[in-house]
Design goal:
Blueprint lengths: L1 H8 L3 E2 L2 E2 L3 E2 L1 H11 L13 H11 L2 E2 L12 H7 L4 H10 L3 E5 L3 E5 L7 H15 L3 H14 L23 H11 L3 E5 L5 E5 L6 H4 L6 H16 L1 E2 L1 H7 L4 H13 L3 E6 L6 E4 L11 E3 L10 H8 L20 E6 L2 E11 L4 E9 L5 H18 L4 E4 L6 H8 L1
Parallel strand pairs: 3-10, 15-16
Antiparallel strand pairs: 1-2, 4-6, 5-6, 7-8, 9-11, 10-11, 12-13, 13-14, 14-15
Helix pairs in contact: 6-8, 7-8, 10-11, 10-12, 11-12, 14-15
């Protein structure tokens, strides 16, 4: 139904050219990379707020994660696209300048503060669940809220009564942490970060700028449609499931909103070689003729976080193995895919070994069909850049993996 209707829509022009909606997989891959900012040249000078503006205009959402094997996950997408920069500059952009806010976007995420109204419907739904979650302890939640109002910003450990620890299903969280998280999810509190990635909670009106809070909250359907439009811009080309996953919208809610976006001409129905499901192409999509990208990618980079799409686009099967017992891991604990040109050509298990002042590569693997010498030289350059960025003096490559020997020679 969508495909039939789109044949008329797709004859519209963009930039003087008829948009092509029957795509090879390689064309789709380049559209996706351009949408995520990998077709842009890395800045030559100082990285500042203008570059972060452009980054978030591209990717929309950056995932937060507590694992710190090499560097916190939310710092890595900027490095992958912009090159070395002071991580504290991103912190200042997010929290001091209040250009970003934390929310459940994809999962725990940083998003442009202007998008705050688009998630208000989720916060209202979460607020309705608080009383049920705490039952008779609702008075405790309100006491926590009043304490933050009086003394905030506070971490969970700062509470006068942090509450008793809990076992599963709350992963050992105390009642105080649970209360703060529920109030955060409900939008009554907002968050910032301190040292060691500690989350501090404060009244929303003391964190989110007043001009943003004064904006009307869209109805749920309108907010979901806009989130899916934003996802279309960030992905470039995607299936319905890909688009829904970007902001974690359930498929029954996503399908009618996507139909509306096609009818409005915001998304175009498309077909991609080798894809078993219909695709949606953003109206402004561009297909670079050449890709010169070279980037290490966090396991939580938005280019690859939907693993099925990663395999469909790049032929790259990727699963994070943090929770896999060590003897059963195929590639390693915290593995970074390596992008060169328009291919994911290798993967490396990387750790910042600060005691030795080294970026440690515990395993290096190239993908079938890639030139091992070309990949090793390009990857070594990226690893040296990452080591310098993290203030580590050298790169040490261990022996595990089919690329390790060449990479060790290239890394010097």
């Amino acid at each position: 139904m969508v495909a039939a209707r789109s044949r008329a829509v797709n004859r519209g022009r963009q930039g003087g050219e008829i948009l092509k909606t029957d795509l090879s997989n390689r064309e789709a891959r380049r559209i996706a990379l351009a949408a995520q900012g990998f077709a842009d040249r890395a800045p030559a000078g100082r990285i500042d707020s203008r570059h972060f503006d452009r980054l978030f205009d591209r990717v929309k959402v950056v995932q937060l994660d507590s694992v710190n094997v090499a560097v916190r996950a939310h710092y890595m997408p900027a490095f992958s696209r912009l090159g070395p920069y002071p991580p504290e500059r991103l912190d200042a952009y997010a929290y001091r300048k209040r250009r970003l806010f934390e929310a459940w976007g994809h999962v725990a995420s940083l998003l442009p503060v202007e998008h705050y109204p688009l998630l208000r419907h989720r916060m209202e739904a979460a607020g309705a669940r608080v009383a049920h979650a705490f039952g008779e302890r609702g008075d405790y939640v309100e006491a926590v809220y009043r304490e933050v109002a009086e003394r905030g910003p506070l971490s969970a450990s700062d509470l006068r009564d942090p509450g008793r620890p809990r076992n599963r299903p709350w992963w050992g969280r105390s009642d105080g942490k649970r209360a703060l998280e529920w109030l955060f999810a409900a939008g009554r509190l907002a968050a910032s970060r301190g040292g060691n990635f500690v989350r501090f909670y404060d009244l929303t009106e003391r964190v989110i700028p007043a001009h943003v809070l004064s904006l009307p909250a869209p109805e749920t359907a309108d907010a979901q449609r806009e989130l899916l439009r934003l996802a279309g811009g960030a992905l470039g080309i995607a299936t319905a499931a890909d688009l829904a996953d970007y902001y974690r919208i359930r498929m029954p809610q996503a399908r009618p909103r996507l139909q509306e976006l096609v009818e409005e001409g915001e998304l175009l129905a498309a077909r991609v070689e080798g894809w078993s499901r219909p695709a949606f192409l953003r109206r402004e999509a561009r297909t670079p003729r050449r890709m010169r990208a070279g980037a290490l990618l966090s396991p939580f980079d938005s280019l690859i976080w939907h693993r099925d799409r990663t395999e469909r686009l790049f032929g790259f099967h990727y699963r994070i193995e943090i929770y896999v017992p060590e003897p059963e891991r195929q590639y390693g604990y915290y593995v970074y895919p390596f992008l060169i040109g328009d291919a994911l050509a290798a993967r490396v298990d990387v750790k910042a070994d600060r005691a030795r002042g080294a970026l440690l590569v515990r395993g290096a693997y190239r993908e079938a069909g890639s030139d091992p010498d070309v990949v090793a030289v390009a990857l070594a350059a990226q690893l040296r850049s990452m080591a310098s960025w993290l203030k580590l003096g050298k790169v040490i490559v261990e022996r595990r993996g089919n690329l390790a020997a060449r990479l060790r020679r290239a890394a010097g």
